[in-house]
Amino acid sequence: MSATAPSNRRIPSGERPSSEPGPVEASGPVESKDARAADRALYRGPIDVPLLAVTLLLVSFGIVMVYSASAVFAARSHGSAQYYLLRQASFAIVGITGMTVASRIDYRFLRKLTYPMLGGTVFLLMLVIAGFGRAGGGAARWLKVGPVTLQPAELAKVVIILWLAHSLSKKQEKIKTFSVGFLPHLLMTGFLMILCLKQPDFGSSMVLLLLTFGLMFVAGAKSGYILGAIVAALPVAYHLVMGTAYRRRRWEAFVDPWAHRHDISYQLVESLLGFGAGGTTGLGLGDSRQKLFFLPEAHTDFISAIVGEELGFVGMIALLFGYSFLLYRGISIALRARDDYGTYVAFGISMLFALQVLINLGVAMGLLPTKGLTLPMVSYGGSSLVINLCAVGILLSISRACVRPETARAPAVNKKLGELEVAS
Question: Tell me: the pLDDT tens digits for 318-329?
């Protein structure tokens, strides 16, 4: 064929096709100003309203469920049934403000902050393991400065996505090489995982690893390298679980919860009883029995058991539908992003939400060993809620620069989809 199909590749800043004449010297400044204005206009489109709507619905639902799950406990522990309600509502206001700000900032600006954010996150994680961390639930994972409490591991999940997106898009031509496209990303993630494990926070470490493998696969890294790393990690994971007393006990509780009904499996069994008591339509909002000091952490990691008990199977399906729609909008934004960086960031954030939902619900339903991960936008927790909402704000920012559905996907996505079609 003599004719060549038009290329969908995004033209980097400063590159000009040879057939396009350059500006003459006299009109250069005018054209340069117009070009910059046109470029800014491309990244100032409307936000993804469905994504914003489902996010606000999940946050509102979370505030209601936190109050329902915590009122009795808060009245006894803090003297006010509204204690956790008011705090969660305050976190939501801060998070929505952060989401609004993030949605109005050109997401490409985050690339300039990649290494400062990464360095700051490493510093905060080191402060935690150096003894400045605030203990809770058998681990020191929080930093407290006055009234502000931050969990650096939550921040690390978003920062690793931003760093991977920057690095993978920069190294796209060498992504299939081991020394450039694979090893550096695995080493950086491994370093952050070690810092999380020192807290200890095994759940966040696994999320970091899965995010890295997922984004490298999307970027086009060799599947053999990823599978090899997974196989090599299995003995390490086995040692981390079986070589630590409390993790081994959690594994035993997972394998046979009813055999340890009154000790190590108490929390899991009470969670299962909550789901079972809910039936099809639930006992009614506010009528949970498990929250009456039977189920520990009812308003945090195990809030889904209260949802299942009060709203039943129907309520859980509605909640899962909300998360599924959130994931759908995130992937849609990733596929329509204007550049590879935006594609990887959107995929990473969507994957982060999916992993946390699957792990949290899997733990509460006895399908996975116990991990300390919250249910995004629903569980009580300031760091989790604020950081997750800021991550949604980044998704909204990327959506403002999305190409129309009928136009081409980002170059990296086209390449990856082509490889999958050839393989099939």
Answer: 999 999 999 999
